[in-house]
Design a protein that fits this description.
- By secondary structure, this protein is α+β, with helices and mostly antiparallel strands.
- The chain is built from 14 helices and 17 strands.
- A hairpin with a 4-residue loop joins strand 11 and strand 12.
- Helix 3 runs antiparallel to helix 4 and helix 9 packs antiparallel against helix 10.
- The longest helix has about 55 residues.
């Protein structure tokens, strides 16, 4: 049996024996319908019996006898078609008049009048059983008592003749039997009702627990697979689908670990789990597509069969190693943030003393060489002070900065020229300035920091070919954009998901803060930075990696020197 729970665009599917859904009608209603149908059947049989006796000439049959059985049939049909079952309560329910009352009346008339010289006393079992199974104990005993009285009255009337004195004893024994039947049938019916109620409560609790489990599994950050000994995938949560590149709409039950070559390492660790029936742990590299490798930490747990109808399963927990490393780095960042304020104060005060002492010393220096050295000390002290402030800004509550208005082409040209001389990029670097007179709201030093980080990142992965790095500006219909493009290899999907996270890097020697700082600085100035894989902006058609910064823009300058807003923020 397959049960699917849908949540958004993902589906958690479990292929295992589950508790069946409750039927549309309760056991009480099914019993009620059975008894009402039986009354209809009895009425039809009585009509056929009377018709057979009349046709065979065994005994005289009068029209009123057919009318009585026909009326009983009509009443039984009306109850079955138009009435609904009502569970027994503590008070008297009028519905029992239309069932048990009509049964007692019809069967009593047939029994007392001795229609066709037949004995109709066995028919009294029908109202007794109906009252016992569908009604309360009081109704069951009352119906048995009424039947017993009717039998005793009939036996008393016939016992006036000497040859019929044994009928009184027979009526008493029959009545006693009906009391026993009423007690036993009512006890069995009550036990059935209690068991059904307990089953409904258990089913409700199981459904609630299953829904809770589904929600927990759906939101798990780690991937989860449940695999059988035949390699068939019984269950897969959305995280596992995303990790394994499983975008196809097919259900897990239609796939197996051995059906895709890239999943074979998972099949191997599952086999070790089944062979040893012990938990396993390993770090695996899955090649999902050519050139894309997924590094996973896999933990397995076997589940033994609980009954003959269940099977042994292997539960696999999948964790992306890159995400685990990013989480560790984030925790390190949080720890660094807690102590950064105190460290910054400790660094800021010596820097201030160094800068002040250097300024005082510079006033007394006359040698040109010594003045040059003093200027270098001052500039680097100032730069260290700015770096401290930037690191502090990363852990402070973001505040709206006081933005400068920069002419995009002029600022980018100056910053790129400075970086090109320091990095000695030479022919590998190409600059395309096409934003015209666009002005952007951004702090100049922050823009330099963003551009240098993006260029350093591009230089690390670009080739040595001419124009391997292209910096371009462009003015769109509403926004100005700065793009840093390089001809590096495509990034793995797992890397792209964490590009702008702190301390995340595909190289162990990188700090992983460059792109994170770029994103933070852009957000504080109302800009955005994004990664895409696309063609070079110089029109050469080459594929590469592009980081694009989109700015808040002003199109021109008014005579007073302030930006003129023609586009809006």
């Amino acid at each position: 049996m397959v049960t699917a729970y849908s949540s958004g665009h993902s589906t958690w599917t479990w292929d295992a024996p589950v508790v069946a859904r409750p039927p549309g009608v309760s056991a009480f209603e099914r019993l009620w319908r059975g008894f009402m149908s039986a009354r209809i059947g009895i009425a039809i049989v009585l009509l056929f019996v009377l018709a057979g006796i009349a046709l065979a000439g065994i005994a005289p049959v009068f029209p009123w006898q057919f009318a009585l059985c026909s009326a009983y049939l009509a009443a039984s049909l009306a109850v079955r078609l138009f009435m609904k079952p009502v569970p027994p309560g503590r008070t008297f329910d009028p519905q029992w008049v239309s069932t048990i009352g009509i049964d007692l009346l019809a069967f009593s008339l047939l029994h007392f009048l001795q229609v066709a010289n037949l004995s109709f006393s066995p028919l009294f079992a029908v109202p007794v059983l109906t009252a016992s199974v569908l009604g309360s104990l009081l109704l069951a005993l009352g119906t048995a008592a009424a039947v017993t009285l009717l039998l005793l009255v009939d036996a008393s009337l016939q016992a006036l003749e000497p040859e019929h004195t044994a009928r009184l004893v027979q009526a008493a024994l029959t009545g006693g039997g009906y009391f026993v039947v009423a007690l036993l049938a009512n006890e069995l019916a009550m036990r059935l009702a209690r068991e059904e109620e307990a089953a409904r409560r258990s089913l409700s609790a199981a459904r609630t627990q299953a829904h809770v489990n589904e929600l927990v599994i759906e939101t798990l950050g780690d991937g989860l697979l449940v695999v059988g000994m035949d390699w068939r995938i019984h269950a897969a949560n959305p995280s596992a689908r995303q990790l394994l590149g499983w975008q196809a709409p097919e259900a897990p039950a239609s796939l197996a670990l051995v059906s895709r070559p890239g999943w074979r390492p998972l099949a191997a660790i599952a086999q070790r789990t089944f062979d040893t029936m012990d938990p396993q742990s390993a770090e695996l590299a899955l090649e999902l597509t050519p050139g894309e490798r997924l590094h996973l930490r896999v933990r397995t747990r076997p589940t033994s069969a609980q009954d003959p109808y269940s099977e042994t399963l292997c539960v696999m927990f999948l964790q992306d190693l890159r995400e685990a490393e990013a989480q560790v780095r984030t925790e390190k960042l949080a720890a660094m943030g807690r102590m950064s304020a105190a460290v910054a104060h400790e660094i800021r005060n010596p820097l201030a003393a160094i800068a002040q002492a250097n300024a005082l010393l510079a006033e007394e220096l006359s040698d040109a060489g010594q003045r040059q050295l003093s200027d270098m000390v001052g500039k680097n002290a100032h730069r260290l002070s700015q770096i401290v402030e930037e690191i502090l800004n990363l852990v402070r509550v973001p505040q709206q900065p006081v933005a400068d208005w920069l002419e995009l082409d002029q600022s980018v040209g100056g910053f790129v020229g400075e970086w090109e001389r320091q990095a000695q990029a030479g022919a590998r670097m190409r600059l395309l300035l096409n934003s015209g007179t666009a002005w952007v709201t951004f702090d100049g030093e922050h823009l330099r920091r963003v551009l240098v980080n993006l260029l350093d990142n591009a230089l690390r992965y670009a080739s040595a070919a001419p124009a391997a790095i292209v910096v371009a500006t462009v003015m769109g219909s509403t926004k100005a954009r700065l793009q840093v493009w390089s001809d590096g290899a495509p990034l793995d999907a797992s890397v792209q998901r964490h590009l702008f996270e702190p301390f995340f890097s595909s190289e162990s020697r990188s700090s992983g803060l460059g792109l994170f700082i770029c994103r933070e600085l852009c957000q504080r100035h109302g800009a955005t930075v994004a990664y895409t894989r696309g063609r070079a902006p110089d029109g050469s058609g080459r594929e590469g990696n592009a980081f694009t910064v989109t700015f808040r823009t002003r199109a021109s300058m008014v005579p007073g020197g302030a930006p003129f807003d023609t586009i809006g923020a």
